[in-house]
Amino acid sequence: MPVYREAESIxxxxxxxxxxxxxxxxxxxxxxxxxxGPDDTExxxxxxxxEHPSVxxxxxxxxxxxxxxxxxxxxxxSGRSVVVMDVDLQxxxxxxxxxxxxxREGAEVVYAxxxxxxxxxxxxxxxxxxxxxxxxxxSEVPIPRDTGDFRLMDRRVVDALMRFPETHGFLRGMVALVxxxxxxxxxxxxxxxxxRGNYNRFFGSVRIGLNxxxxxxxxxLSIATMVGFVAAVAAFVLAIAYIxxxxxxxxxxxxxxxxxxxxxxxxxxxxISLGIIGQYIxxxxxxxxxxxxxxxxxxxxxxxxxxxxxxYSGR
Length: 315
Prior knowledge:
Structural class: alpha/beta
Order of helices and strands: EHEHEHEHEHEHHEHHHEE
Helix content: 40-55%
Strand order of the largest sheet: 1-2-3-8-9
Strand content: 15-25%
Distance between the termini: 21 Å
Shape: elongated
Oligomer: single chain
Number of strands: 9
Number of helices: 10
């Protein structure tokens, strides 16, 4: 569970999750991967650790973000299967037994597909729907629609996932790229149990979608090329029309407004294209530096574990 400023959610989440795990598994660990924040999230997890030895804690040296925290938790997990979920109870723990049943029947990835999304605005739902369809349309691998990071993965999938060195983790795309036998379970997503989400309602979804699109597709580069080509053709046609108008002595609307509009239009296309190219170059720049994906400040409950492959453990 990646966690940031979720002090109010820890205890209710464990009240739902632990009975499910105790009933349906022979052994389990509950790993909270915590981006340090200003509230009492770490204290709430330590209080739970005192009562439940299966609860374990990772605290990073700074805030690395939800995707990186998720991958760090997966890397530290030792089970034969690993479940990724949020602690706000929008990913219901009661769905885990069905995931386990599918896994025991042979599925190596079981992802939760959202049928309904309670507690979200129409704007956010619309952005999510559009984003899923755009990513699915242009991604190099099929990424299931209406899914988040809530999923169960077999140890084989986790081991393959940990071979990916990329720093911008888009879990649902990476798991799709790994392959293996994948199945879905459908659920109605409830509203948050407590507090407010840490993602911006508008830009958070856009940022996630852009991350997935850049990480798993070169479609934006192709679109920029096509838009530039269309603009060039339009300019050529406009020039021909101007020449013809001059030859046949027909009036042609030429003046400052026309010139300014054309310059702004072409300049806008150029800036957008540069921005798209910059996104890809920025990814290349991040990858070639080969810095650790994350840095762990505190790791509690992990005895005899090997050093992380993609991170650095400070203690």
